[in-house]
């Protein structure tokens, strides 16, 4: 005889799950009136959407204090519901169900004594730069204004002033963090030191950071802009750029981008984005080996405000598949640059980006933060640009040249690694660093509540 109640068990547990989720949303709404947003509201749609696209969620909570964050964490964890934390929403991993804690209401920027700046965990870098501009101050961070302080800072933060002041985490002095147990802690060099270490590059695995305290620096007298080149001698551009940056002072920061011709109206070839804390004459003198190349097509250099260096991000994930990766380049040797060049010189359209490091970035000891590859003279990102439905053969062909280029790198930068798993974790963190991160995780989040994109499981 057949089962009279087919699938009864799974239907009952599904119904129980639905009831549990409904009661969590009800409980959250009672505990945090006006802060919980469900389907059909703009807050819900904004909260469940990141750069990678919209995801699934039961509800979006917008707390306005660390205590409210703690309440949301306690309610969600006691019911065993997945939690996602959202700052600027530029992460690469779509929201996958449960409760989203959207920190949009925690976006204040407050100047304190001694050049310290308290920044809410949900602020955007453009807002931070604008708020500090009247004080002639800036914080070394990314190059895009609408990226969130939370995700970028917890992953490291490579931006315009990386050679001058290091990574964003290198000038982080303190965090206020809500743990999985719903405790509000202050972590710095004097208390909760291991947690503070882990939060400077270990991502969103250890709690919800509601407030960052950074040490800002003067950004007066900034000059910058761009230089474009045609494709006639990319080798000469790569070598001259390497030499200019190696000889230049820490105050000189730049990124060299080499784009293929994707559209007829889009110029292909190397483009240099550059900024110097100094004068325009000094910048032109430092860049002379590049500016004197016959392939130069455009030079635009002028005084610039730090806030104006930050760009707007593109509207969403580009409609193609990027195949390749990133890594820190300890030695920009002629051989390495020639292999990078060969990655460009092929039928698969390929983009290459070199962000200059060295300087203050490289003077931080390897074990001072989870970002250990401090000998990097540049961060290389190299990607073949394929259609979204590329075949396995096309992907494999694209990888041949990008892998050859990446062989000259060590480690990976987590914020630029859009794939997630143990293989990526092993590439991002050297084994002792990863073990240390897992030990911190076991201390502060033994139940593994915070499963950020680059998920670090607790040590057992
Ligand atoms: C257009 C664009 C430009 C970029 N430019 C740069 C750049 O110049 N330099 C650079 O270093 N990176 C850059 N990135 C990468 C960027 O740093 C990461 O994608 C980062 O995760 C985005 O942070 P977010 O807060 O905007 O994203 P979100 O999607 O809000 O957050 C990403 C993840 O971080 C965690 N998280 C965020 N805030 C908190 C918090 N307060 N507490 C706990 N966990 C939190 C969560 O796990 C979340 O899933 C860029 C990305 C894009 C899309």
Report on the architecture of this protein.
The chain has 460 residues and is of the alpha+beta class. Helices cover 33% and strands 23% of the residues. It is built from 15 helices and 20 strands. The protein is globular and about 70 Å long. Flavin-adenine dinucleotide (FAD) is lined by residues 50-51, 84-92, 103, 121, 142-144, 147-148, 150-152, 154-159, 204, 208-209, 313, 415, 452-453. Residues 53-219 form the FAD-binding PCMH-type domain. Its cofactor is FAD. Belongs to the oxygen-dependent FAD-linked oxidoreductase family. One of its GO terms (molecular function) is FAD binding.
List keywords for this structure.
single chain, 460 residues, alpha+beta, Uridine Diphospho-n-acetylenolpyruvylglucosamine Reductase, domain 2, Uridine Diphospho-n-acetylenolpyruvylglucosamine Reductase, domain 3, Vanillyl-alcohol Oxidase, Chain A, domain 3, 3 domains, seven-stranded antiparallel β-sheet, five-stranded antiparallel β-sheet, 15 helices, 33% helix, binds flavin-adenine dinucleotide, oxidoreductase activity, FAD-binding oxidoreductase
Choose one word for the global shape: globular
Class inferred from helices and paired strands: alpha+beta
Main β-sheet: number of strands, strand sense, barrel status?
A: 7 strands, antiparallel
The Rg value, from CA coordinates, equals: 23 Å
Would you identify the CATH architecture of the largest domain? 3-Layer(aba) Sandwich
Keywords: FAD, Flavoprotein, Oxidoreductase
Protein name: FAD-binding oxidoreductase
GO molecular function: FAD binding; oxidoreductase activity
Domain FAD-binding PCMH-type: 53-219
């Amino acid at each position: 005889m057949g089962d009279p109640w087919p699938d009864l068990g799974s239907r009952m547990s599904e119904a129980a799950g639905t009831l549990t989720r409904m009661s969590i949303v009800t409980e959250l709404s009672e505990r945090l009136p006006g802060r919980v947003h469900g389907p059909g509201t703009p807050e819900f749609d904004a909260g469940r959407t990141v750069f990678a696209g919209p995801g699934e969620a039961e509800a979006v909570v917008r707390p306005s204090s660390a205590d409210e964050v703690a309440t949301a964490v306690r309610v969600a964890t006691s019911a065993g519901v997945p939690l996602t934390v959202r700052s600027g929403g530029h992460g690469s991993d779509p929201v996958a169900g449960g409760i989203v804690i959207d920190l949009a209401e925690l976006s204040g920027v407050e100047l304190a004594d001694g050049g310290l700046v308290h920044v809410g965990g949900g602020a955007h870098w453009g807002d931070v730069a604008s708020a500090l501009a009247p004080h002639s101050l800036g914080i070394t961070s990314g190059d895009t204004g609408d990226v969130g302080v939370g995700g970028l800072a917890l992953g490291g933060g490579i931006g315009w002033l990386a050679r001058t002041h290091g990574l964003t985490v290198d000038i982080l002095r303190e965090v206020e963090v809500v743990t999985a147990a719903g405790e509000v802690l202050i972590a710095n060099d004097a208390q909760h030191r291991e947690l503070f270490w882990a939060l400077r590059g270990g991502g969103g695995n250890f709690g919800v950071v509601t407030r960052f305290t950074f040490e800002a620096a003067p950004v007066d007298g900034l000059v910058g802009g761009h230089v474009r080149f045609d494709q006639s001698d990319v080798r000469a551009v790569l070598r001259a750029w390497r030499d200019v940056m190696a000889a230049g002072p820490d105050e000189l920061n730049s990124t060299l981008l080499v784009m293929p011709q994707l559209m007829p109206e889009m110029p292909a070839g190397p483009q240099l984005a550059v900024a110097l804390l100094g004068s325009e004459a000094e910048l032109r003198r430092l860049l002379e080996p590049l500016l004197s190349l016959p392939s130069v097509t455009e030079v635009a250099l002028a005084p610039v405000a730090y806030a104006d260096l930050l760009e707007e991000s593109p509207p969403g994930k580009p409609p193609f598949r990027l195949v390749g990766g990133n890594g820190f380049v300890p030695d920009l040797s002629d051989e390495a640059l020639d292999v990078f060049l060969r990655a460009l010189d092929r039928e698969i359209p390929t983009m290459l980006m070199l962000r200059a490091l060295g300087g203050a970035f490289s003077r931080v000891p390897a074990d001072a933060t989870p970002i250990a590859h401090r000998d990097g003279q540049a961060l290389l990102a190299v990607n073949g640009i394929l259609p979204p439905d590329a075949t396995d053969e096309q992907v494999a062909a694209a990888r041949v040249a990008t892998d050859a280029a990446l062989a000259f790198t060590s480690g990976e930068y987590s914020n630029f690694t859009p794939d997630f798993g143990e293989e990526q974790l092993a590439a991002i963190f050297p084994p002792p660093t990863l073990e240390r991160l897992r030990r911190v995780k076991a201390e502060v989040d033994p139940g593994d509540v915070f499963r950020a994109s680059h998920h670090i499981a607790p040590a057992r």
